[in-house]
User: Which sequence fits this backbone?
């Protein structure tokens, strides 16, 4: 009986941890090779920006900032979407522009303040 209880607790812990991790996930995960539309990528970039704010990786002042620019660029592994946000209210002017990179299909790659 003790073993059954321990197994039940262990299994519940494993599934519970998976659910907690899912809360940070994004609905912007795509399969296949169809190139994402600009609208889809902008929505995913806005969603990713919110995640970065929640994680404390960028300042909350980015919340109301809309994207300035979206373009397809040549990345390390082929074509990528680059979405740029500009926040003139930041104190550190080296962090005035936020760049988010996505695969051509719309999956998030990276975010930084350098654009590289």
Assistant:
């Amino acid at each position: 009986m003790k073993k059954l209880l321990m197994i039940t607790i262990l299994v519940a812990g494993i599934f519970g941890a998976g659910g907690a991790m899912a809360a940070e996930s994004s609905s912007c995960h795509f399969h296949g090779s169809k190139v994402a539309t600009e609208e889809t990528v902008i929505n995913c970039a806005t969603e990713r920006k919110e995640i970065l704010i929640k994680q404390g990786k960028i300042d909350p002042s980015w919340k109301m900032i809309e994207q300035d620019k979206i373009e397809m660029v040549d990345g390390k592994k082929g074509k990528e979407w680059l979405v740029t946000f500009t926040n003139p209210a930041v104190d550190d002017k080296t962090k005035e522009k936020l760049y988010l990179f996505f695969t051509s299909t719309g999956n998030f790659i990276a975010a930084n303040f350098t654009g590289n």
Summary: The two ends are 58 Å apart (CA to CA). Residues 7 and 13 are 10 Å apart (CA to CA). The chain has one domain: 28-112. The chain has a mean pLDDT of 83.
